[in-house]
């Protein structure tokens, strides 16, 4: 049993995920964490913190070894580490929704204080790819930015959605670190500098990422899942009803391989083997875990695992010695093994008995009413499933339909579908009332995104009066583009927007791709090239045309730029195409984007004007206050009163101005996000090298504020005409 | 003194029921004892433990499910004859496994509880108690509600035979011959009885009882009246009590109380100088503890607590230190034993796996033929659906002998499923189209590996009634699921009680018409929980109930052709009226319904609600302040500048937050009940006041008792 080597109870709350350990004076590790009231506290158990006697830092009135740092804005991310190698000590980095602060705690000075328009939701510090100096990489609204110790913006790129987690990991084992980005659209993207080298789609928002070793990394989702990836393959994952608040890699059992340590919202901490996910250690806190970090906190040369709870409880664990390896839990392994084996034996015995009873039932008389009650059904009962497209009716929106039926007079009592990402929870249940029981059930399914989904079905089959049911388990895959119905082509409604590209594949192979990714009616047969198919989206009724010429030229007409991108990515992965240049035109979308860009400019100028106004007003306040106080000293109460009235009005104006500024800012953020997304989408239409070229070129165009070039790049894929 | 017990698993048999494991008395002084256990497959097994390995002494053939196992023998000699109750039969075995008795009782139902004392045999089926002496019928008693356990005060110490029945309606019934001497009310439905200290204490009349809501108590059963000695309330919300034993595990010369609960908790209470019980040790195993006894079976010289669990594990919690602390040579030896055990288990498994594979193939072949049938393997589900008095919610507990894969909960009435810290299953709520399919709740619980027990909390609304169904799918092949149904009754938050306050202003509902006693009883059974299914004996019967949420009461008296229901809560009467008239119409019985409304009762009910509401409002207010106050504290460094009230909040912060968390949606529920009360009050007057409800909610938002009462009067 592994016991904590130290336990501290600080009287400060700790905000979840905002914990970092750093040697701010170069030698002593201190714990920094965000707490209530926009403050950060630094716990320094080693020396009485006499040198923290400057303006920003104040001594905590509650504890002598804790100092407080006032940020005055809600802290959204926090980390510590070496940003300037010449400095010889760690820097504390604090991100808020508008700014990034790099702070030298020991010298009480700012390294830099930068405004970041996209906000900082996540931060990671380290070296990225070939960039020599350490970078502080922050992730905000669809954007990633990396700063060196002088605050220079050395790295900038966009990603699909708001960033929630970042990590640096040597993903392709080339000795250089790649950036892992987890975002709100459920994707983990891997950036080799600004090039996306891999994308993994998960089932929920990725809240944490942590490098393990080599190309292995751990991840946590907002639905309570944690797991480990090695490159693009998932080793294991588990799901809990609690949420993972922080994950960290640490070798707790001294076997040379780090385990994934997870801190949970219910106060549990567990260490899981990186290979199997098996729990090798667990402990409990009385409140939710705020963060898991490591550091040589006692300065005895051993690195401890440090777990912090939101109530300020901190426990440190030393890794177990080699002898107790595998014995971190309090019950002995043998006992557990025996229990497990016995349980297995019992299960097998039960199964055996089930078969015996079955043979007994076999020999008895033919099926009767009583048999149905006990759940005896004909042995050759089969379950059929079909997936089809339902165009809907007046009362029902169009949907994809899953029909399940039994092969005889048995009924389906209920169907459970476990699938990720397409239902509100992780499962969907269909339980008809007693009057509506029959041998078939049709279930409407409407996947919100175009991703292939595995449907794990459990159907309870029996008779009307049964109290026991057979459970039929089977898995069906919902094709990626199941929400598109094949319709007869009608050139009048053909969308103006299109993408056009050439692939060197036989037409038959394209047909195979079609039938695997769309729900085509069984009788449809597609003639040889050239051919044209038309689909209607079940979500919004939009049209989708796919035209294939014998030369291998494919034109996809749709107004939905995301759909076009998805189709290209799907084709690319099906035919294993590495690089694909695409010509695209989305007039409607581009027009919208143009408007957004104009708006961004507007908001920027409004922002500047408002800031100037505010500065003016604050000058005015100063003078008004002086005059009012003068009047008071002169005992001229009337003037004083009127001055204070003016001050009050001005204050009201300021408050209003603040509200306008806030609104302006949120609008600005929304529009910036739209711009970032547009770049991402333009990239999504291409594959491989052209994709990165498009993103880089777009970025340059935006920097130089050259809107026309931007649209040309989006259309043809390169800046040069 | 600290008690340190180490767990050792000995053996697994089939699924066991309550009180089916005993330790045979040791033959020589300080020798290890043998364990005898009976399971639901009908197998009685006796085994000893040698070097950590279970060695069987005898094992009988499978038969009917064993409901109880007791030891007996000639009084004042070692009690080493084994008696089992299976079906309606009692069988006796010697300690060598030779059957010497097979007694077919004349009971029509199967035996539920048994007690043996010398040649006296006390048996009970669901409602019937029978006393046999030398297998000859002596006495008989029909109980008003289900009998859960039976015991007789020690005949060797007392001059009389005093059987005591633990009945579901929260009473212990003390008998004399075939007649009831008196009833003792206990705080919950008693599930188990045991003699204090194993012999009835100093007086020989002391009885320990355990209830299904986890309470323990000691009562002295004198000839004329009961004397309550002590009671342990279930503060930690642990499971119901299934078994009790007395054994000196602490080694201080005083027998300690060993308790096993249905949530896997094993507890040891010792007694202080004032003879009050003090909790000394608790450990949780993951499944119901069905039997518990102290003794010595693993190693000579080390006492231990032996428990059997629902899925048939016999486990010892022994005072023998774990092998880590013993000498280096010894450790190796024990490891060797373990290794052997694991090795033999593994080879056994391999053999079984091969056999199962063969059978599986055969099964597959069968499924090809058109004439063949496929049976569902049956598995036993141990379930419990009970009302918790403390927070007026229901607990649904499901336990299966193997790991549960998933549970589907379906309900055709609106209910809330509450989150439980105890269970780790991932819950997922599914959308339900209530109109076409009668679903108000569809939720799946996907269990983590090795979960055999699932506990859910459900909040119901009075007046909304229907059925809750649980589809349980365990992880066994072939995959199968079992459905269990639970009734949510119209007055679901009411609980039986035995005394009510007659001084309260009451509203009365009187039914008259052409109905039989059985019919009116079935209606009451339909409406209210904790009513026996069978109509009780006699021509006229009275039941008292208490609303667990509001503490209002209900008195129901009925006979053939007449039923009178009295309650101080108008809503209760209104619900009863609606449901009863609906039920009667269903059976085409003409009912005359008369009611008498007491205006004062509304005010009275509001006054009952007032302290609860005020407390909740204050609590909510305080909890809201905590964070802000804490921030101030951080800012200023001390709390001296705060007014005492705020300082008090800060000091009690943790406690307040805990309290607040414990009662989610308590305020909303109170508001709902007040609204119901308001609507019902005017419904009886024939006016519909639904339009005024928003006004009422406004008043509740700025709550003041007088304003509320005035509003009720004025509207």
UniProtKB/TrEMBL annotation, chain A:
Main location: membrane
Span of domain BBS2 hairpin: 587-683
Keywords per UniProt: Cell membrane, Cell projection, Cilium, Cytoplasm, Cytoskeleton, Membrane
Signal sequence residues: none
The Ciliary BBSome complex subunit 2 N-terminal domain, residue ranges: 20-126
Domain of life from the UniProt record: Eukaryota
Domain BBS2 platform: 484-575
Classification via SUPFAM superfamilies: WD40 repeat-like
UniProt cross-references to Pfam families, sorted A to Z: BBS2_CtH (PF23351), BBS2_GAE (PF14782), BBS2_hp (PF23353), BBS2_Mid (PF14783), BBS2_N (PF14781), BBS2_pf (PF23350)
GO BP terms: adult behavior; artery smooth muscle contraction; brain morphogenesis; cartilage development; cerebral cortex development; fat cell differentiation; gene expression; Golgi to plasma membrane protein transport
InterPro entries: Bardet-Biedl_syndrome_2_prot, BBS2_CtH_dom, BBS2_GAE_dom, BBS2_hp_dom, BBS2_Mid, BBS2_N, BBS2_pf_dom, WD40_repeat_dom_sf
Protein name: Bardet-Biedl syndrome 2 protein homolog
Organism: Loxodonta africana
Automatic annotation (TrEMBL), chain B:
Extent of the signal sequence: none
GO cellular component: axoneme; BBSome; centrosome; ciliary basal body; ciliary membrane; nucleus; photoreceptor outer segment
A GO biological-process term: fat cell differentiation
SUPFAM superfamilies recorded: WD40 repeat-like (SSF50978)
Ranges for domain BBS7 helical hairpin: 599-712
Keywords from the UniProt entry: Cell projection, Cilium, Cilium biogenesis/degradation, Cytoplasm, Cytoskeleton, Protein transport, Transport
Source taxon at top rank: Eukaryota
Matches recorded under InterPro entries: Bardet-Biedl_syndrome_7_prot (IPR016575), BBS7_GAE_dom (IPR056334), BBS7_hairpin (IPR056335), BBS7_pf_dom (IPR056333), Beta-prop_BBS7 (IPR056332), WD40/YVTN_repeat-like_dom_sf (IPR015943), WD40_repeat_dom_sf (IPR036322)
All copies of domain BBS7 GAE, residue ranges: 377-486
BBS7 platform domain mapped to chain residues: 494-595
GO molecular function terms listed in the Swiss-Prot or TrEMBL record: RNA polymerase II-specific DNA-binding transcription factor binding
Residues of the BBS7 beta-propeller domain: 21-319
Gene3D superfamilies cross-referenced by the UniProt entry: YVTN repeat-like/Quinoprotein amine dehydrogenase
Task of the protein: The BBSome complex is thought to function as a coat complex required for sorting of specific membrane proteins to the primary cilia. The BBSome complex is required for ciliogenesis but is dispensable for centriolar satellite function.
Subunit structure: Part of BBSome complex.
Protein name: Bardet-Biedl syndrome 7 protein homolog
Species of origin: Loxodonta africana
């Amino acid at each position: 049993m592994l016991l904590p080597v130290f336990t501290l109870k600080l009287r400060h709350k700790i905000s979840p995920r905002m914990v970092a350990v750093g040697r701010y004076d170069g030698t002593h590790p201190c714990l920094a964490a965000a707490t209530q009231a926009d403050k950060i506290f630094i716990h320094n158990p080693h020396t009485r913190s006499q040198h923290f006697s400057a303006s920003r830092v104040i001594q905590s009135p509650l504890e002598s070894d804790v100092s407080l740092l006032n940020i005055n804005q809600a802290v959204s991310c926090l980390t510590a580490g070496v940003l300037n190698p010449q400095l010889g000590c760690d820097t504390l980095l604090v991100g808020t929704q508008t700014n990034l602060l790099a702070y030298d705690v020991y010298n009480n000075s700012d390294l830099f204080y930068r405004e970041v328009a996209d906000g900082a939701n996540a931060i990671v510090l380290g070296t990225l790819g070939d960039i020599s100096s350490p970078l502080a990489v922050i992730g905000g609204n669809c954007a990633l930015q990396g700063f060196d110790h002088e605050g220079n913006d050395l790295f900038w790129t966009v990603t699909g959605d708001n960033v929630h987690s970042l990590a640096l990991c040597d993903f392709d084992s080339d000795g250089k670190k790649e950036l892992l980005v987890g975002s709100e659209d459920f994707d983990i993207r891997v950036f080799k500098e600004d090039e996306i080298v891999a994308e993994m789609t998960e089932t929920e928002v990725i809240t944490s990422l942590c490098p393990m070793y080599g190309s292995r990394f751990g991840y946590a989702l907002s639905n309570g899942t944690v797991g480990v990836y090695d490159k693009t393959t998932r080793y294991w994952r588990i799901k809990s009803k609690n949420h993972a608040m922080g994950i960290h890699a640490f070798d707790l059992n001294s076997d040379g391989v780090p385990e994934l340590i997870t801190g949970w919202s219910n106060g549990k901490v567990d260490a899981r083997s990186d290979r199997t996910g098996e729990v090798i250690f667990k402990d409990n806190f009385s409140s939710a875990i705020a963060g898991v970090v490591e550091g040589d906190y006692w300065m005895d040369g051993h690195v401890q695992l440090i777990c912090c709870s939101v109530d300020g409880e901190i426990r440190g664990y030393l890794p177990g010695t080699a002898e107790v390896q595998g014995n971190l839990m309090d019950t002995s392994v043998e006992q557990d093994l025996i229990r497990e084996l016995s349980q297995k034996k019992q299960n097998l015995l039960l199964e055996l008995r089930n078969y015996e009873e079955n043979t007994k039932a076999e020999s008895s008389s033919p099926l009767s009413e009583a048999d149905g009650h006990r759940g005896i059904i004909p042995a050759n009962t089969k379950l059929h499933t079909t997936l089809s497209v339902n165009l809907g009716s007046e009362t029902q929106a169009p949907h994809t339909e899953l029909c399940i039926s039994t092969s005889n007079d048995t009924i389906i009592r209920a169907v459970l579908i476990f699938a990720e990402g397409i239902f509100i929870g992780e499962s969907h249940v269909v339980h008809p009332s007693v009057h509506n029981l029959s041998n078939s059930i049709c279930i409407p399914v409407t996947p919100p995104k175009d991703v292939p989904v595995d449907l794990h079905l459990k159907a309870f089959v029996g008779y009307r009066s049964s109290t026991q049911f057979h459970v039929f388990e089977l898995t069906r895959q919902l094709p990626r583009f199941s929400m598109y119905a094949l319709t007869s082509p009608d050139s009048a409604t053909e969308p103006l927007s299109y993408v056009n590209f050439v692939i060197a594949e036989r037409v038959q192979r394209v047909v195979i791709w079609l039938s695997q990714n769309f729900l085509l009616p069984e009788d449809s047969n597609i003639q040889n090239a050239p051919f044209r198919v038309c689909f209607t989206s079940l979500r919004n009724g939009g049209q989708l045309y796919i035209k294939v010429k014998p030369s291998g030229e494919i034109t996809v007409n749709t107004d939905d730029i995301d759909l076009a991108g998805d189709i290209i990515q799907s084709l690319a992965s099906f035919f294993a195409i590495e690089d694909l240049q695409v010509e695209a035109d989305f007039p409607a979308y581009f027009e919208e984007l143009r408007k957004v860009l104009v708006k961004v400019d507007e908001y920027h100028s409004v922002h500047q004007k408002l800031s100037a106004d505010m500065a003016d007003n604050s000058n005015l306040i100063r003078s008004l206050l002086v005059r009012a106080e003068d009047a008071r000293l002169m005992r001229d109460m009337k003037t004083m009163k009127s001055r204070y009235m003016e001050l009050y009005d001005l204050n009201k104006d300021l408050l209003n101005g603040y509200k306008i500024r806030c609104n302006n800012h949120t609008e600005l953020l929304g529009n910036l996000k739209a711009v970032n997304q547009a770049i991402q989408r333009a990239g999504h239409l291409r594959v491989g090298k052209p994709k990165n070229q498009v993103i880089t070129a777009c970025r340059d165009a935006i920097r130089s504020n050259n809107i026309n070039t931007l649209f040309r790049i989006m259309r043809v894929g390169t800046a040069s005409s | 003194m600290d008690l340190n017990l180490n767990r050792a698993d000995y053996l697994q048999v089939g699924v066991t029921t309550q009180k089916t494991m005993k330790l045979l008395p040791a033959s020589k002084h300080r020798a290890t004892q043998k364990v005898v256990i009976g399971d639901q497959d009908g197998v009685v097994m006796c085994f000893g433990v040698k070097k950590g390995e279970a060695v069987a002494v005898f094992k009988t053939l499978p038969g009917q499910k064993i409901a109880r196992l007791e030891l007996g023998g000639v009084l004042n000699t070692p009690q080493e004859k084994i008696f089992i109750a299976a079906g309606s039969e009692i069988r006796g075995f010697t300690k060598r496994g030779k059957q010497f008795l097979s007694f077919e009782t004349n009971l029509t139902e199967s035996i539920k509880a048994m007690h043996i004392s010398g040649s006296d045999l006390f048996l009970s089926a669901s409602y019937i108690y029978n006393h046999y002496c030398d297998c000859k019928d002596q006495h008989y008693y029909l109980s008003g509600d289900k009998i859960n356990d039976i015991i007789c005060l020690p005949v060797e110490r007392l001059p009389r035979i005093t059987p005591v029945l633990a009945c579901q309606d929260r009473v212990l019934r003390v008998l004399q011959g075939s007649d009831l001497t008196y009833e003792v009310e206990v705080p919950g439905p008693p599930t188990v009885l045991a003699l204090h200290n194993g012999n009835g204490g100093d007086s020989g009349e002391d009885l320990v009882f355990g209830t299904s809501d986890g309470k323990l108590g000691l009562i002295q059963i004198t000839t004329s009246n009961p004397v309550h000695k002590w009671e342990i309330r279930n503060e930690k919300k642990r499971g119901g009590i299934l078994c009790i034993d007395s054994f000196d595990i602490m080694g201080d010369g005083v027998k300690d109380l060993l308790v096993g609960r249905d949530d896997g908790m094993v507890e040891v209470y010792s007694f202080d100088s004032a003879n009050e019980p003090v909790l000394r040790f608790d450990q949780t195993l993951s499944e119901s503890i069905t039997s518990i006894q102290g003794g010595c079976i693993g190693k000579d010289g080390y006492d231990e607590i032996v428990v059997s669990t629902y899925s048939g594990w016999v486990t010892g919690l022994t005072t023998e230190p774990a092998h880590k602390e013993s000498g280096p040579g010894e450790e190796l030896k024990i490891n060797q034993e373990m290794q052997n055990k694991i090795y033999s288990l593994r080879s056994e498994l391999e053999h079984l796996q091969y056999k199962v594979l063969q059978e599986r193939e055969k099964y597959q072949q069968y499924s090809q033929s058109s004439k063949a049938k496929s049976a569902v393997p049956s598995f036993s589900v141990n379930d419990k659906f009970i009302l918790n008095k403390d927070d007026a919610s229901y607990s649904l507990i499901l336990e299966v002998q193997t790991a549960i894969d998933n549970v589907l909960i379906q309900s055709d009435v609106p209910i809330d499923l509450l989150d439980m810290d105890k269970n780790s299953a991932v819950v997922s709520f599914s959308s339900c189209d209530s109109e076409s399919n009668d679903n108000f709740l569809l939720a799946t619980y996907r269990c983590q590996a090795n979960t055999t027990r699932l506990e859910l909390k459900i909040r119901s609304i009075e007046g909304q009634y229907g059925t809750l169904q649980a589809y349980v799918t365990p992880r066994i092949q072939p995959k199968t699921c079992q459905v269990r149904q639970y009734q949510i009754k119209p007055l679901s938050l009411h609980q039986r009680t035995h005394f009510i306050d007659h001084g309260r202003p009451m509203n009365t509902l009187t039914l008259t018409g052409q109905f039989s006693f059985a019919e009116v009883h079935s209606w009451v059974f339909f409406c209210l929980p904790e009513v026996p299914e069978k109509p009780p004996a006699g021509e006229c019967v009275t039941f008292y109930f208490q609303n667990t949420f509001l503490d209002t009461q209900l008195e129901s008296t009925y006979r053939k052709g007449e039923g009178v229901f009295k309650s101080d809560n108008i809503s209760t009467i209104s619900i009863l009226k609606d449901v009863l008239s609906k039920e009667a119409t269903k059976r085409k019985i003409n009912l005359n319904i008369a009611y008498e409304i007491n205006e004062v009762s509304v005010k009275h009910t509001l006054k009952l609600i007032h302290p609860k509401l005020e407390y909740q409002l204050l609590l909510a207010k305080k909890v809201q302040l905590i964070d802000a106050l804490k921030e101030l504290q951080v800012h200023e460094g001390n709390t001296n500048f705060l007014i005492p009230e705020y300082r008090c909040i800060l000091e009690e912060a943790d406690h307040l937050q805990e309290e607040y968390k414990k009662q989610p949606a308590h305020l909303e529920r109170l508001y709902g009940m007040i609204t119901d009360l308001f609507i019902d009050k005017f419904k009886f007057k024939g006016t519909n006041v639904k339009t005024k409800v928003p006004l009422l909610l406004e008043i509740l938002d700025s709550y003041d008792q007088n304003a509320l009462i005035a509003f009720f009067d004025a509207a």
